[in-house]
Amino acid sequence: EVQLVESGGGLVQAGGSLRLSCAASGFTFGDYVIGWFRQAPGKERKVVSRIINSDGDTDYADSVKGRFTISSDNAKNTVYLQMNSLKPEDTAVYYCAASRNSGPYWYKEAYEYDYWGLGIQVTVSS
Fold it and tell me: How far, in Å, CA of 101 to CA of 92, rounded?
């Protein structure tokens, strides 16, 4: 069955770094767009970054641009989100998601994704 499993979350001080991993199985990884979303309590789920595995194209929300880096290891069916210079505003549950849509688009909306992980907590202390 299709599975997306996040790992690497936890508690970190402001200015620190974390690397999230999203391990995928049950589908053809290279054919999909993989996105990272986050959701804070009482807030809507918002896109953080995405990568188009077919060509490696990446995009980022303005709030994380220059601090976060998304990458993909197709041999391991895993997407990473390297998060540097973390801020308290980055505190949220982080989700990875997969979309089989095609085309050079942002893929910033949750409805564009077909599969979702269960999420993992990231907490940044001030």
Answer: 26
User: From CA 4, how far away is CA 123, in angstroms rounded?
Assistant: 21
Look-up of token digits 């849509």: 101
Determine contact, residues 108/47, Cβ cutoff 8 Å: yes
d(CA 31, CA 88): 34
- Segment 81-94 mean pLDDT: 98
Which helix (H) or strand (E) is 118 found in, with range?
none
Work out the average pLDDT over 121-125: 98
Nearest to 27 by CA among 122, 96, 124: 96
d(CA 90, CA 105): 24
